Amino acid sequence: MSFVTRNICVLAATLTAWLLAALLAAAPGLAANATPGVFTGGASLITTSSATLSGSVYPNNQQATYFFEYGETAAYGARTAVAVAGSGKQTIRVSAPVIGLTPFTTYHYRIVATNASGTATGQDNSFVTKKIPLTFSVTRSIHVVYGSPFTVTGTLAGTGSANHQLVLQATPFPFLFGFKNIGVPLFTDATGRFSFPVSPLKTNTQLRLATLETPPVHSGVMIVLVAARVSLHVGHTARRGWVRFYGTVSPAEPGSPVRIQLARAGHPLVTLAATTLKSGGSQSRFSIVVHVRHKGLYRARVKVLSGAQVSNSSRPLLIR
Fold first, then answer.
1. What is the DSSP letter of 12?
2. CATH number, domain 229-319, options 2.70.50.60, 3.40.50.300, 3.30.365.10, 2.60.40.10
3. Predicted model pTM
4. How far is residue 241's CA from residue 237's CA, in Å, rounded to a whole number?
5. What is the pLDDT of residues 50-83, one digit of tens each?
């Protein structure tokens, strides 16, 4: 081999070695296999019981798989199913859903990826699941007799419903002035149940419950129908077979009609006589003489015309 030829060969070998060294410096993964590159991303689509976790995986030119670890502490304790990230030389974005989470709870998570060279873990991230909204369960219609106290009961459900402070609100007939607090605030029990004692109402009233935070959570509107209180008595008359029915109605409903009715087994309800209520201060009064031909249960039925209360009947009286 000539001197020139030998020098050319040495120069070619030197250039080849230099070029290979440059390539290895630019891409160390070509010199030796390496574990995947990983990055823990954010959490999205967060609900009360689920979320979607995201991240990135660089397979490092080897077949790689990944999963997410998650739990209520940085010790995790749960993981998603293993998924394939491929074997390319490009970073890919990945995600996985997690379900069965506890509402309003902090969860830690990270991505873990593995290839033939080993396993890499991403940094720890966290998110908080959403609260279950507070909702009321209450009776929508309540019937009471004028002058009678009653109780509003129900349940507050959702995150933070236990030992939660509530207030009762009311707007009376004719329902023109909005809701105002009545009574004193009370707390739900450990299961979210509540019980509000209510003093006797004079008129038909709309009620609702409200929480005290801002903005408040309201229950549906409850309709309290206040029935007129009707009493019925029977007095004797000088005429055989005739009796006097008399009684009172509270509150006073002067001019409202009163019917004396008879109920007998196997027969429809029959109206025997009618009159109108007379004014009597805080009460209205009625009195009427009726020819009683049959044994049975007799009652007075009052039709309230004002709209402030609802119609009602007295307790039945047995005439033998």
1. H
2. 2.60.40.10
3. 0.75
4. 8
5. 999 999 999 999 999 999 999 999 999 999 999 9
> What's phi and psi for 40, nearest 5 deg?
-80, 125
Hey, where are the domains in the chain?
1-29, 33-128, 135-227, 229-319
Tell me the residue type at 101: L
Amino acid identity at 150: F
CA distance 245 to 292: 11
> Minimal CA–CA distance to 134: which of 89, 188, 184?
188
Predicted confidence (pLDDT) per residue in 203-223, tens digit: 999 999 999 999 999 999 999
Angle CA 135–141–143, to nearest 5: 140
Q: What's the burial of 205, exposed, middle or buried (CB within 10 Å: 0-12/13-18/19+)?
A: buried
Contacts of 118 (CB under 8 A, 6+ apart): 35
Give dist(CA 136, CA 218) in Å, integer: 8
